[in-house]
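Same chain as my last thread, 414 residues:
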Amino acid sequence: MRRGLGHGQQLVYDWNTVRRRAPVAREGLKFYDETLRDGIQGPSIQDPSIEAKLRILELEESLGIDCIDLGLPGAGPRAVEDVTRLARHLVDNKMSIQPSCAARTHINDIRPIAEISQKVGIAIEVMAFLGTSPIRQLVENWDLDRLMALSGDAIAFAAKEGLPVTFVTEDTIRSRPDTLQPLFLNAIEKGARRLCLCDTVGHATPDGVRNLIDWTQCLVAGTGEEVGIDWHGHNDRGLGVVNTIFAAEYGADRIHGTALGIGERVGNAALDQVLLNFKLMGEIDNDLSNLVEWCQVVAEATGVTIPPSYPLMGEDAFRTATGVHASAVIKAKKRGDDLLADMIYSGVPAGWFGKQQSIEIGHMSGLSNVHFWLEAHGIADRPGLAEHVLEAAKSQTGLLSESTVRELVAAFPG
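reply #2:
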């Protein structure tokens, strides 16, 4: 594929599509947000106010996110109250996003979900989780019989209450197939309609994702039942987003993540980056104009600082002070082609998401940076002024602030 950028020219050759194996987004692929449950488990994350949670829910609806984990009601009265408010808000506003709640494989965790579901009048999916890896079994002193009883009883109870159930195996990627097979078959028999494969500690590589999903698909096919497959990944190796995209290609029909990748340790797969990539690959047509606001609201509500270099959201995402790069962006802007300016030194079109290229002045800048900056800020250029500002910038170790540039302009004797 070649991307057209103004004037009918094909200016970007896209190696990403050469000998492409398959579409990444299979028909019916769903996006599942864990921000208000798994996301807020991070030790540096504060639990958002209910007002912030309601706004986060509304923004997710606008982004076309399909499913949301409202929380873990089994955690206590406040969690029950917040989940109830969120579910009621969803019903009152006739939202299409599908609600779910996390629960340990324990009836006491599932019962409050059933009660909220009945009170609000909407089906709430139960995400019943249980650790299944050998290392977890050793620490907990669990054997297979214990795992079978815990999961089977919980799933059967949820199904009897009329709730959709997903069986979530924690640390699936490090679990043995001879443990997963009886657990999965038992879960399906007891009423689970989905299996969630988890990379709980960020262990997986793309090969591991493919192997686990292939194996699970074969197991499910042998049952003759319609059972969906979720992928839930963490980012300990820095592969959270990549693995999630591969999971969709390899056959997972619902993929999980959190805004900004917040979560325990180094966090979950960043759902905003997953959505961004699916949009740029032409795999989804969701309106992502609120993607930046969603992440900003989550950051403020949870006390998270967005790193300057964070994709799309970061302060530096579309900002440059490097002379050669800035010169190319400026030349593109002077052509009157905003998309060309967006793409000359960026793989993400800033304008698609309500942002724009920014040219700054620093120790690696050239005169073109200064001329452009002065024009953009409505400052008349004078002979020698740009050279004066650039000379000051070259003596600094960072960027010149707007106030500093204005002081230099005011002090210039020309």
